[in-house]
Amino acid sequence: MPPKASNTTADLLKARRARARRIVRALRKAYGEPKLERGDPLEQVVYTVLSQQTTSESCRAAWEALCAEAPDWDRVRRMPEPRLAKVIRPAGIANIKARRIKDILAQVKADFGAYDLSELEDLSETEAEEYLMSLPGVGQKTARCVLLFAMGRDSLPVDTHVARLSRRLDLRDHDGAAKDDHTALDEVVRVGDRGAMHVHLFRHGREVCRARKPLCDQCFLASLCPWHLTGGKVE
Ligand code: SF4
User: Fold this and answer.
1) Could you tell me if residue 35 is left (phi over 0), alpha (psi between -120 and 50 degrees) or otherwise beta?
2) Where do the CATH 1.10.340.30 domains begin and end in the chain?
């Protein structure tokens, strides 16, 4: 009997799930278990809005300026928009971010009667994610950052590093057309590994698997990496 073709969708998914398990095991061995401190979800939402399309240093500078200027959310919401944009200017696209922050604060106050998202703790991960994505300008990546970094949920936000590494490591389709990044990775990374996968791929993407000139000769994932093993043909 001829060997059964192994490139069916189910086989591919099975192979990717197995590779994802080996990858996260290797990442944990190298980097340890990520230490995720819980924080205030609303602070994380605003911080993540500030972090969009800018560097960590610029985001931090804008956040510190905002905290110094307006120590509570009511003060931020009441601040004239041009003034708020001026305060957070280090983060870039300040006019858009100022509008977004004020709209988010208004919606949270309207929904919960306070500038407080702690009621999200009572919701399932999917429900909390859906609520966060209903906030103005909050997409799935931002919502998942809040779930992971402020609420301690096992969530996998797909940022630029995670997206690049997941393609190189062949954990998802390469054209990106069939499924969005988050759905594709949720299918292959099991519950319990998702937060660790995000934190460690982010670090690995910054330190080793850079967009240009990845340091494959120093990479402990090389034996698991189709991109490396095929000479860069799979990305
Ligand atoms: S082997 Fe190279 S391409 Fe693959 S994960 Fe490591 S650095 Fe990235």
Assistant:
1) beta
2) 41-149
pLDDT tens readout for residues 18-66 = 999 999 999 999 999 998 888 899 999 999 999 988 998 999 999 999 9
Closest Cα to atom 1, ligand 1: which residue?
222
What average pLDDT does this structure show over 187-214? 96
CATH number belonging to domain 41-149: 1.10.340.30
What distance in angstroms lies between residue 187's CA and the mean position of ligand 1's atoms? 22
pLDDT in tens, 116-169: 999 999 999 999 999 999 999 999 999 999 999 999 999 999 999 999 999 999
Side chain identity at residue 211, one-letter code: A
CB 41 within 8 A of CB 151: yes
User: CATH second-level architecture of 9-35+158-229?
Assistant: Orthogonal Bundle (1.10)
CB of 215 within 6 A of ligand 1: the answer is yes
DSSP H helical segments within the chain, as ranges?
A: 9-31, 41-51, 56-69, 73-78, 81-87, 94-112, 125-134, 140-149, 160-168, 181-188, 194-207, 226-229
Q: How far, in Å, from the CA of 111 to the mean position of ligand 1?
A: 45
Cβ 27 under 6 angstroms from ligand 1:
no
Query: What pTM, to 2 d.p., does this model score?
Result: 0.88
From the CA of 208, give the closest atom in ligand 1. Answer: 7
